[in-house]
Design brief:
This protein has four helices and 23 strands. By secondary structure, it is mainly β. The structure holds calcium ion (CA) (2 copies).
């Protein structure tokens, strides 16, 4: 939460900073943050955000300047978009392989190898069945940190279960000819099982600690939201597990009565994007309420608020019942979008092909059909750019390849795989 540490900044500078980029003034005593960004305030007269439409939650204010509607920035990077492959049916994830080929999941349950030149392989055999209704299906895929030697991959999927379904994580070994998965095991099951078709999450990301971090939704229905705050459920959580699916002893709630040992953070709504930054910090981007999509710095044991603390309104247009935008003990998002972008897939760019983009966070936007680029400084968003708008496709996932280029899949019935490379 915010703490008032510095209050000496002149009120007139504060006012300028607030007016320039963040709409109305903050709702709580967050002037310290404004003071920290005093330098930015001095130059913010020219600041215009990418988003200029009215917010959905017109009566809400950010907790600090720059928490939403950051200054629009233009990188002036000239790039080409190559359509590597077409005809992918609602692809959900793209995972570049070391040699240049790519794994692509399709929501209906197929995992495919797409060659660097764009040849789409037959579905890889050996995956368990998925429940592909609604938002469910075959979701993310990630390579083992030791893929080079063990050819092991991990994937998340909507598992049909007695009484409903749930997000589960499986792993398997890609056969030498890359046509099938062997030694397939379901290593983790989100509890409880529920009979619905929404908010499964999920993204998978290995940390430098060798642990697998996985993000999940709270299953959307109003009676399910409370699970985001309950320690006896994985719904609305980010978990940290060993490669065998078990919770390690240094997780934050190990030993707490009734708490599941895999929980890393709580209070999430539906996290469909997660990425480690170059310093090894985990960031999660989640679908919020209408006007409340969030970028969060995912730190051990923290509570990100849903459904008690949240920006936005119900998709019906009604206020969020019982919610406030800020409360002590609950994390503020580093950044939020109102109106929403509907985020899915994210990566920090670290390659050599685009020096101007290094350390920037790229996020897919389903709802606004574009790629979002965020500039971060000291764990704050200082610039936003929207790319690939003219393509009008729902961007589902973005990853950096070993060649330093960006790879994107689009969530369409006739979905595409794109390669973003410097213009020739
Ligand atoms: Ca992935
Ligand atoms: Ca939140």
């Amino acid at each position: 939460m915010l703490t008032a540490r510095v209050t000496s900044i002149p009120a007139i500078v504060l006012t300028a900073a607030l007016a320039a980029c963040s709409g109305a003034p903050p709702a709580d005593s967050s002037t310290a943050q404004a003071a920290e960004s005093g330098a930015a305030a001095a130059t913010s007269a020219q600041c215009k955000p990418v988003e200029t439409r009215p917010p959905n939650a017109s009566n809400q204010s950010p907790a600090r300047p720059g928490q939403t509607r950051a200054c629009a920035v233009t990188s002036n990077v000239a790039f080409d978009v190559s359509v590597v492959a077409k005809g992918l049916v609602n692809p959900w994830a793209v995972e570049p392989l070391p040699g240049g080929d790519l794994l692509v999941t399709e929501k209906s349950g197929r995992l495919r190898l797409v060659s660097a030149s764009g040849t789409i392989g037959q579905p890889i055999a050996g995956l368990p069945r998925v429940d592909a209704r609604g938002q469910g299906g075959l979701l993310d895929v990630a390579l083992s940190p030791t893929f080079d030697t063990d050819r092991t991959i991990y994937w998340s999927f909507t598992e049909p279960r007695q009484g409903g379904n749930g997000t589960s994580i499986a792993r398997g070994v890609l056969s030498a000819d890359r046509t099938r998965l062997e030694q397939v095991q379901v290593i983790f099951r989100v509890l409880p099982t529920y009979d619905g078709t929404m908010h499964y999450g999920s993204r998978l990301a290995f940390g430098t600690d060798g642990m697998l971090y996985a993000t999940f939704g709270e299953r959307s229905d109003s009676q399910m939201r409370r699970y985001s705050q309950q320690f006896d459920s994985h719904l609305g959580k980010i978990v940290r597990i060993r490669p065998d699916g078990t919770g390690p002893p240094d997780n934050p709630f190990v030993g707490q009565a009734g708490a599941l040992p895999e929980i890393w953070t709580l209070g999430h709504r539906n996290v469909q994007a997660a990425a480690f930054d170059p310093q090894g910090k985990l960031w999660g981007i989640e679908h919020g309420a209408r006007g409340g999509d969030e970028l969060n710095l995912v730190e051990k044991g923290k509570n990100f608020g849903w459904p008690i603390v949240a920006y936005g309104i119900e998709y019906s247009g009604r206020p969020l019942s019982g919610a406030v935008t800020a409360r002590s003990g609950y994390e503020q998002p580093v950044y939020y979008w109102d109106p929403v972008i509907a985020p899915s897939g994210a990566t920090f760019y670290t390659g050599d092909a685009f020096p101007a983009w290094r350390n920037n966070l790229f996020i897919g936007s389903l709802g606004q059909q574009r790629l979002v680029r965020l500039v971060l400084e000291n764990d704050r968003v200082t610039g936003e750019e929207h790319l690939l708008i003219d393509r009008s496709q729902r961007v589902r996932d973005v990853r950096q390849g070993p060649d330093g280029l960006l790879y994107i899949v689009t969530d369409q019935q006739d979905g595409e795989l794109w390669r973003i490379s410097p213009r020739r």
